[in-house]
Amino acid sequence: MKRKRRKGDKPEVRIGYLQEHSTCAVCLAGWREFGNWLEVHHIVGGSGRADLYQNLLTLCRSCHDEYHRGGRLTPGMLLTAKLESNPEGYDESVILKLLGRKELPERWQPVPIPQAFIEMRERR
Q1: For residue 124, what is the DSSP state?
Q2: What does the alpha-carbon distance between residue 36 and residue 65 come to, in Å, rounded to a whole number?
């Protein structure tokens, strides 16, 4: 079944981002490492979703699932990962605009990535 394109959908932007950022921003997994594929995550999803470099982050399938299941990763941790993996692409004003806010909610404040993910990085 073909996915319906949403207004403003720009797959070429997501593909370009993934080509430039080819490791998971959280655990540093590469392409198909341990059978784990890389995916493009929208930092601000839902109605605020936009295919802008400032709103994109490369995640491996495991980290992406961990975030969306409400696991150990929060929006603030993903912003930290964005800052570390793509500092030139980090623009808090873009995130605030997409969120429709003047300041980041507490859950969105950049915070350290959990130690378990740092240990995964060190094993790579």
Answers
A1: -
A2: 11
